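Possible race condition, two jobs.
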Amino acid sequence: MKVSIITATYNSASTLKDTLESVQSQSYGRIEHLIIDGQSKDDTLEIVKKYPHISQCISEKDNGIYEAMNKGIQLATGDIIGILNSDDFYAGNDVLEKVVKTFIETGCDAVYGDMIYVDLEDTGKIIRLWKSGNYKPGDFKWGWMPPHPTFFVRRELYEQYGSFNLHMKNSADYELMLRFIHKNGARLAYIKEVLVKMRTGGASNNSLSARLRANREDKQAWLINGLRPFWFTPYLKPLRKITQYLIK
């Protein structure tokens, strides 16, 4: 099975090296790494040139990270598609090997795992641990979702159910997973270990106003899919994050 990894970049020079090296060092051999750049003004593209494992890099103006991800999905030729942000990196060099093995052994539509948030400068310092847990139908109504950078999907799901909704500015990843999993019943397999490390400061979490916008979009995600959550569902999702700071 071929794995396509999509990394969207924009002025990502300060963190991109870790991302690229974590893909380059994977033990699994059939990887297509696509870089979708939004016309960076820093040294992002110069860094990309130093990594021969990269299959393709395009740099052109876009309307944000989700449009860049959609471009990558259109270009991807792998059987499995994963998204790795330009400030994230894989937790080990065997992550993709484990992901492919899980797809083969279970016949699932999508695989996900756990994720840790690390300090922006000291990536050895753990800030938050996101333990996904096994999915049960209906869990989205109780505020559940998997961490998107650990979410690997068969390309057929994108072809059948569509890609990221560009009307969403903060929660397009949540809407896509809600659509794939809760609405259309994608069959999931859970790898019970940390697959990705993410630096703190994501777009939907770096301010109160951004978090409030994301919460409003979470509600819209249900409406546009013709779904009815519990009245308290939008509040459970952020509340669940509190326990992720209780690192054991």
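Job #2 (started ~2 s after job #1):
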Amino acid sequence: MELSNLSQEEKQLLASLGNAIVAIDEEKAKKIAEDIVNEGIDPNIAIKYSIADAAIKVGEKFDSGEYFLPHLVMAGDLMDEVGAILGRNIPSERMEAKKVIVIGTVQGDLHSVGKNLVATMFKSNGFDVRDMGVDVPSISFIEKAKELNADMIALSSLLTTTMPYQKEVIDDLLSMGLRDRFKVMVGGGPVTRQYAEHIGADGYAKDAVEALREVKKLLR
């Protein structure tokens, strides 16, 4: 089932779910998710459109200053809850294998807001995201990626003094003979596309919306 095959009423139900998530109305969002399941709408469609669209809108509100970090965390938690309601009704044989992304803020950097938003965007769009937090040593990214057989390592840096640690992860992957095993994407305030290319990263994003486009291009 595709979005174009749904009735106007079903499309409105999906839109209402997205709006409830953006409004961080937990009770309403969970009720609508149950209604979507009861109506027989493909849960994958709801996950792909309602939750993904809501993540983008929440990100826009955060970027504009209308929402703050607590809103971001609550919206992310609600997306997880709604996704669980929808996901438990997907037959196991129709579950898509998720691409695994290890994400974190590099060593010496304690900034988490941008990284958290990117992680939420990834997760709400169907990726298996493992957030390692902040001030993460380069080798820890690599060990976790190896452990999970990850598809991508996403590195955030908000300080010019910590940007070299993004390069260090790539250099360590090269020296360990693992560079071809993982895609590496970098981002953060001072990071530029030119810098990303210079250090040999596979991808770069200036914000969460661009990060989502980039990861879809690299992994899908």
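DSSP finds nine helices and five strands in the chain.
Logs attached separately.
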